[in-house]
């Protein structure tokens, strides 16, 4: 008996504190809604709701706690009803209930809902019972499925909008660009202006590029001839040679052409322009020839 | 014609073999500003330096299969600055723990008749480009953010077009051989630039 009483008291105290907290948060929420409605933001409203829901949850937990005796078994009976002000009661209820009279008691000590509400509830329960267990189960399942579909859609939408918003920010670099730039700086991929589309000669170097060359031996000869008089642009001929020199990019056919021409560019050019008998048979492959160097070149240009 | 890996050679000569440690990445044009701001905060306090350089790469085709490559660079916006000639060796592979690309590096400043000299020596220009961008320093680390422009008419540096919509970002250190701790510092710095730019060691041979 004693123990149960103690338990009852303890649980009542816990309940009381929980309800007080709930009341406070409700009060502050109402205040916020009434006074700060123009400054109110949805997240702050959500915060208040979250607080309330948390407190209700703890209230439920307290009620379900194993140490809580069944309040259902307790009965509250008013012993004295008087129309006089009761100071004690006022103090305890914080001024809300000044008088413990006939008007107050039915509201405060009510255990059953209103008659109309009771009617409705009875109606609902009979309806539910009428459907039958299977149909009810099916309805429950379909409801669950619809809810989960909806949730999924919302989540997906949220995720996509988030990533869509972030993606332009996230893409601060392009790995393909990195590779292209590094290749350009390391060995000139895409930089040479005779490669029409700017990347990789290895495909068909036999195709005539924009403005030059290398279609075949005759093409090679031709451009070298053309290169002779314009000696002030040593770059051009150098460029052809260099293209020939790209390791591993040329198929062998072209290579032989180049090999034959790679004796000495100046040598060829000299032959083309001026019949000169001062020269060289340099060692094959070497581009440098000591004898017919600068002077010969200058003469020709 | 390539020098053997430098770390195998004893240091007997008068010059110290310098190695270049390199990390590369890129940044899209629209994110350039944020990268510049971040670099200004991270790097040594100095006036933001911009540069416009014209680089020409010369090849000497020898009997061996791989040609000898020299890079000549000149400034287009700084009159009177000397030309710069650089040799970069093959990247030294093998050490997976090394976080940066390491290659032998020889730099020298030259006078203006560099191209003529190289042509006389037998070099031929392979390709050229214009680099326009910003330069930052942090201690011995050099960070360069530049855009590569393709030269449409050889020799004409006015008529250029951008190669891509990105800027190339390079973090490099030139240090004596054997100082691998430098690559750790570089990696730590590169961490600070993420996620704007991912600086990593990119092997150019993979991109051929």
How is this structure best described in words?
- The complex is a heterodimer of chains A (301) and B (208).
- Chain A is mainly α and 301 residues long.
- Chain A has twelve helices and no strands.
- With 208 residues, chain B is of the alpha+beta class.
- Chain B has one domain (18-201): Beta Barrel (Hypothetical Protein Pfu-838710-001).
- Chain B contains three helices and nine strands, in the order βαββββαββββα.
- The longest helix of chain B is centred in the C-terminal third of the chain and has 13 residues, at 181-193.
- Chain B is globular and about 45 Å long.
- Chain B starts with 17 loop residues before the first strand and ends in a 15-residue tail after the last helix.
- The interface between A and B is large, with 46 and 48 residues.
Inertia-based shape of chain B: globular
Mean pLDDT of chain A: 69
Read across the widest sheet of chain B, the strand sequence of neighbours is: 1-5-4-3-2-6-7-9
The shape of chain A, in one word, is elongated
> Which band does the percent of strand residues of chain A land in?
under 5%
User: Mean of residue pLDDT of chain B?
Assistant: 85
Order of helices and strands of chain B: EHEEEEHEEEEH
What's the oligomerization state? heterodimer
| Proportion in helices of chain A | 55-70%
Low-confidence runs of chain A: 193-262, 267-301
Proportion of strand residues of chain B: 35-45%
């Amino acid at each position: 008996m004693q123990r149960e009483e103690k338990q009852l008291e303890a649980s009542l105290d816990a309940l009381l504190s929980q309800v007080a907290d709930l009341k406070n948060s409700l009060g502050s929420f109402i205040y916020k809604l009434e006074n700060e409605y123009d400054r109110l933001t949805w997240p702050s409203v959500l915060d208040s709701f979250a607080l309330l829901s948390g407190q209700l949850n703890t209230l439920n937990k307290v009620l379900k706690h194993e140490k809580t005796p069944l309040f259902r078994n307790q009965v509250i009976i008013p012993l004295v009803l008087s129309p006089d002000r009761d100071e004690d009661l006022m103090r305890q209820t914080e001024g809300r209930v000044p008088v413990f009279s006939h008007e107050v008691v039915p509201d405060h000590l009510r255990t059953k809902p209103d008659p109309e509400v009771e009617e409705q509830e009875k109606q609902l329960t009979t309806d539910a019972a009428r459907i039958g267990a299977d149909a009810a189960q099916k309805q429950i399942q379909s409801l669950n499925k619809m809810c989960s579909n909806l949730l999924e859609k919302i989540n997906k939408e949220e995720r996509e909008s988030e990533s869509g918003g972030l993606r332009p920010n996230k893409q601060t670099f392009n790995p393909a660009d990195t590779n292209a730039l590094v290749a350009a700086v390391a060995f000139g991929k895409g930089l040479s202006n005779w490669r029409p589309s700017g990347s990789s000669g290895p495909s068909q170097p036999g195709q005539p590029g924009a403005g030059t060359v290398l279609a075949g031996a005759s093409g090679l000869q031709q451009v070298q001839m053309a290169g002779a008089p314009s000696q002030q642009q040593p770059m051009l001929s150098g460029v052809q040679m260099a293209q020939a020199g790209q390791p591993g990019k040329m198929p062998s056919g072209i290579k032989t052409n180049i090999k034959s021409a790679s004796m000495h560019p100046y040598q060829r050019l000299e032959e083309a322009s001026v019949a000169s008998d001062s020269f060289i048979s340099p060692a094959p492959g070497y581009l440098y020839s000591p004898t017919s160097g600068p002077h010969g070149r200058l003469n020709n240009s | 014609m390539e020098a053997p890996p430098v770390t195998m050679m004893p240091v007997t000569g008068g010059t110290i073999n310098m190695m270049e440690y390199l990390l590369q990445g890129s940044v899209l044009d629209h994110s350039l500003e944020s990268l510049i701001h971040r670099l200004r905060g991270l790097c040594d306090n100095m006036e933001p330096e911009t540069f416009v350089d014209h680089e020409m790469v010369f090849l000497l085709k020898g009997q061996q299969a791989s040609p000898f490559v020299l890079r000549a660079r000149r400034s287009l916006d700084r009159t009177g600055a000397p030309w710069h000639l650089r040799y970069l060796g093959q990247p030294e592979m093998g050490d997976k723990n090394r976080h940066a690309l390491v290659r032998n590096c020889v730099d020298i400043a030259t006078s203006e008749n560099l191209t003529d000299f190289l042509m006389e020596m037998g070099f031929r220009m392979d390709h050229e480009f214009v680099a326009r961008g910003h330069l930052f320093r942090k201690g011995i680390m050099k960070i360069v953010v530049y855009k590569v422009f393709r030269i449409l008419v050889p020799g004409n540096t006015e008529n250029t077009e951008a190669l891509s919509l990105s800027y190339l970002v390079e973090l490099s250190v030139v240090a004596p051989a054997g100082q691998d701790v430098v690559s750790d510092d570089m990696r730590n710095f590169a961490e600070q630039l993420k996620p704007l730019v991912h600086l990593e060691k990119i092997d150019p041979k993979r991109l051929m």
